[in-house]
Amino acid sequence: MPEEMRQEEEAETFAFQAEIAQLMSLIINTFYSNKEIFLRELISNASDALDKIRYESLTDPTKLDNGKELKIDIIPNVEERTLTLIDTGIGMTKADLINNLGTIEDQTEYVEEKRVKEVVKKHSQFIGYPITLFVEKEREKEISDDEAEEKEEKAEEKAEAEDKPKIEDVGSDDEEDSKDKDKKKTKKIKEKYIDQEELNKTKPIWTRNPDDITMEEYGEFYKSLTNDWEDHLAVKLTSLTEYLTRMKDNQKSIYYITGESKDQVANSAFVERVRKRGFEVLYMTEPIDEYCVQQLKEFDGKTLVSVTKEGLELPEDEEEKKKMEEDKTRFENLCKLMKEILDKKVEKVTVSNRLVSSPCCIVTSTYGWTANMERIMKAQALRDNSTMGYMMAKKHLEINPDHPIVETLRQKADLDKNDKAVKDLVILLFETALLSSGFSLDDPQTHSNRIYRMIKLGLGKDAHSELLGGRKRL
């Protein structure tokens, strides 16, 4: 008698006791209301069985003497409505089977290949052993007409024979005729076969030595984790310890900038002078970084300095110090005028030592919020509005004395400080600096209208010419 039939005859059926059945119903409906959990648990149990045999093999190597592969096979059978999981680990005893196993009814969707793949990817992607799914596939196979006729029914053979047109070769020599007779005609048919697909190809790389992991493996792990089929961006991280090893001899502080993205902080006006001096600036683009640097004031004796706050000190020689004093004196009147125009929008207006190519920027006081912190706090639903009003008011406007826009504005202000164009330019510079420094505008429409008005002036069109433009073409 075949072994399979003997096993079927010897199979026994057990039912849960009434109390256990009630308890199982409670557990399933309460903790496992999501039906797909059962597959995760079965795979987890199979993984435990593989762990068990692997651990036992450490003290008893004969357990794995036959060289069997530690793996998990998943075999769906749509016709019989079964889903079979097979592992090569240490199985349960008869008592374990009686005590631990039950069935989940009416879940025939899990015999479908697509559904099984979804559940395994969602819950069991990083099981340490191969999980293999047995799938039914089709492939084309080339067979001779003789083989095809053996598989087809007699009725089909008759129909094919009647439908086939008779072809008579005219003028072919005897040698060619003999070759045609010897050559068998072939046809392609589709046949079904069972293939094995490994579902968890991406292994948990965090359990391995980083030196043994290739860039290709990192890329595959990223794609499986994010469902992104594009290559991940190259990102080079650094630590404060590594930063210290690269500091210049005349550098006294650790410079950093916080922001929403790497591109934003890299193109910021705040880093212009610092980078020109050859100093590194740490880019901090995670929201948690703002809270960390508020508590981390120094590291290994070096002070952490935000390049977006007031009081930025950079090493200067005597010539640079002298030039700064001259610039402060030359732009003193303009700074006072800009403060009068902006009023409570800024605490003060000063000459900047951090700008190179930008005309101006908005910095915050030492204890005020940065633009990034202000953005984070505005997104909080339960924020303290009274605190926000106080912290958001701590803004300083810094102007670049070497920029042609600022120099031209100084000359116009010296000629007539009551000129309306001067006021518009000051407000426009301030609002533009807000945007470029990472802040948001309370009234974007007013800012837009001011820009449009400046564009009209630049084109030589005033209010009177605009009215005329409606009646005649210039």
From TrEMBL:
Q: Which GO terms describe its molecular function?
A: ATP binding; ATP hydrolysis activity; ATP-dependent protein folding chaperone; unfolded protein binding
The record's keywords, sorted A to Z, are: ATP-binding, Chaperone, Cytoplasm, Nucleotide-binding, Stress response
From which organism does this entry originate? Oncorhynchus tshawytscha
**Extent of the signal sequence:** none
Q: Which InterPro entries match?
A: HATPase_C_sf, Heat_shock_protein_90_CS, HSP90_C, Hsp90_fam, Hsp90_N, Ribosomal_Su5_D2-typ_SF
Can you name this protein?
Histidine kinase/HSP90-like ATPase domain-containing protein
User: What is the predominant subcellular site recorded for this chain?
Assistant: cytoplasm
Which Gene3D superfamilies would you find in this protein's record? 3.40.50.11260, Heat shock protein 90, C-terminal domain, Histidine kinase-like ATPase, C-terminal domain
Q: What is the lineage of its organism?
A: Eukaryota, Metazoa, Chordata, Craniata, Vertebrata
Q: Which gene encodes it?
A: HSP90AB1
